[in-house]
Amino acid sequence: MSKVFNKVIERETTEVKRSFPSSDSDREKIFNKISEVTNGNLRMGLLMLEAMYMNYEVVTTGTPIIVPDWEGVIKNLAKSVISDRTVANLNSTRTILYELIAHSIPSKLILKTLLWELWGLIEKPAYKVKDVNKIRSSIVDAAAVYDERLSIGNKDIFHLEGFITKIMVVLEKD
């Protein structure tokens, strides 16, 4: 990814080149931070590189990486699904899902990101999950089912909400 980032910066205007450090080692540190945050996703990395340039006059190794808002929303959604398994919370998750879809976040990306967030949160002691491997297996099974339903069905919100409901039921049975 670093080579691609360097090529992009080199092909841009001199203003862009001046915004980033001239030192190769400093640039490499910034690029590695972006690569780590994006899990090697080049498209996301390029968007973050552009966001850093647009928001900061000078980008240094200490400049914070700008993470998309929707990822934080999905993280909070996953935390609420695990910690509060009530009908009221299910209604609030519907509102959050509507907002994400309204902001053009693809439903499959929402499902995938939610799956990975739940995967990581399950093992945390604060959530008191007894059989982590069993729950993870159930989450992946549910994600596979609802991913297929997203491909076949029309109303994405129903399938995303169904996935969250299924996860709440699985966690409640644990």
Describe this structure in words.
- With 174 residues, the protein is mainly alpha-helical.
- The chain is built from 9 helices and no strands.
- The termini are far apart.
- GO terms for molecular function: DNA binding.
- Pfam families: RCF1-5-like_lid, RFC_C.
Runs in which pLDDT lies below 50 for 5 or more consecutive residues are none
Helical stretch tally: 9
Helix content: over 70%
Topology order in helix (H) and strand (E) letters: HHHHHHHHH
Seen as an oligomer or otherwise, the chain set is: single chain
The main pleated sheet reads as: none
Residues in β-strands, percent:
under 5%
Instruction: Compute the number of strand runs.
Output: 0
GO molecular function: DNA binding
Describe the structure concisely.
The protein is an all-alpha fold and 174 residues long. The protein has nine helices and no strands.
List keywords for this structure.
DNA binding, 174 residues, elongated, mainly alpha, 75% helix, 9 helices, single chain, DNA_pol3_clamp-load_cplx_C
